[in-house]
């Protein structure tokens, strides 16, 4: 034991501390009513849900708008606790005149940043600031097969400036696999053409493996998803599935849709990066801007 200091246990100490504290992950869902937002979220997380409540505390900024709902969940898996806030934005794009219908969404995201900043700047700041900053915006694209709507492009551009945007092709079982591939390419081309910057972002700190993973994810995005809250028996096992005109769609089968890719991305491979990018890129940009404005 000569010379042994013991700091090699730091990762373990940090892990224990983090596990005890639990993780906070906040997702906002944007897309027209009926595109399967609620269903998809339930398909991803419902199996591990241990507690849900409909609203945050009364002093939460959420209450100021009527168009935005927050549902808080606690999900648990092997003693790892994830506090999950799911923010729904009913009414987006549902009206005849959708002019500026995205304003409340952008405002909501910025309000969380400014709330966090305010708490950070108080002299007696709390040890752990409750984090309501949005880590991921799931943007639901209608499975039209044609391309993005003009409004989608405007909104995606605005959103991607303030939050990590992850686009999904909603209800992709409405498209054949060929239609789906063509639609996906079309959407990718539009993102490139309009210079919409999507998560994941390049980072000098990434190693070879992370870089390869991100290239893979960038190829898949937008995820073509199918959600279902019902299970059917396939080979004697219950699987989340939907019955449509072509037969049974097994939500968890990669040959049928990309639901599993999205779930792994959100809960396994990119959870930490979504949280870090929010604080290091989006929140940092907001913070710098606010503090500069204060100086002037
Ligand atoms: P929301 O308004 O966006 O939250 O949509 P919901 O989750 O309430 O879903 C609206 C309807 O679409 C429901 O009848 C769902 O069963 C159905 N639905 C949800 N996901 C899918 C899907 O992936 N494929 C198909 N074909 N229908 C879906």
Automatic annotation (TrEMBL):
GO terms for biological process: cell division; septin ring assembly; sporulation. Coiled coil: none annotated. Residues 21-293 form the Septin-type G domain. Pfam families: Septin (PF00735). InterPro entries: G_SEPTIN_dom (IPR030379), P-loop_NTPase (IPR027417), Septin (IPR016491). It comes from the Eukaryota. GO terms for cellular component: cleavage apparatus septin structure; septin ring. CDD domains: CDC_Septin. GO terms for molecular function: GTP binding. Keywords: Cell cycle, Cell division, GTP-binding, Nucleotide-binding. The keyword Cell division applies. Belongs to the TRAFAC class TrmE-Era-EngA-EngB-Septin-like GTPase superfamily. Septin GTPase family. This is Septin spn2. It comes from Neolecta irregularis (strain DAH-3).
């Amino acid at each position: 034991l000569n010379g042994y200091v013991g700091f090699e246990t730091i990762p373990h100490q940090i892990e224990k501390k983090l596990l005890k504290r639990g993780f906070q992950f906040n997702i906002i869902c944007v897309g027209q009513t009926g595109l399967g937002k609620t269903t998809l979220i339930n398909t991803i997380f419902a199996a591990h849900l241990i507690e849900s409540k409909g609203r945050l505390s009364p002093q939460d900024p959420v209450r100021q708008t009527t168009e935005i709902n927050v549902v808080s969940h606690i999900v648990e898996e092997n003693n790892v606790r994830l506090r999950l806030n799911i923010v729904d934005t009913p009414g987006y794009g549902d009206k005849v005149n959708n002019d500026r219908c995205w304003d409340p969404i952008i405002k909501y995201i910025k309000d969380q940043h400014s709330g966090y900043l305010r708490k950070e700047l108080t002299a007696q700041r709390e040890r752990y600031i409750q984090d309501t900053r949005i880590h991921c915006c799931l943007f639901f694209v209608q499975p039209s097969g044609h391309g993005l709507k003009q409004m989608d492009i405007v909104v995606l551009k605005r959103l991607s400036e303030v939050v990590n945007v992850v686009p999904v092709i909603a209800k992709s079982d409405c498209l054949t696999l060929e239609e789906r591939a063509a639609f996906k390419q079309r959407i990718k081309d539009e993102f490139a053409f309009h210079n919409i910057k999507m998560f994941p972002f390049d980072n000098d700190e990434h190693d070879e493996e992370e870089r390869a993973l991100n290239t893979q994810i960038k190829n898949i995005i937008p995820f073509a998803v199918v959600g279902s809250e019902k299970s059917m028996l396939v080979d004697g096992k219950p699987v989340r599935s939907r019955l449509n005109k072509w037969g049974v769609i097994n939500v968890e089968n990669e040959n049928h849709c990309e639901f599993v890719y999205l779930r792994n991305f959100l809960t396994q491979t990119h959870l930490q990066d979504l949280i870090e990018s929010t604080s290091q890129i989006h929140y940092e940009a907001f913070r710098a801007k606010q503090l500069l404005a204060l100086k002037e």
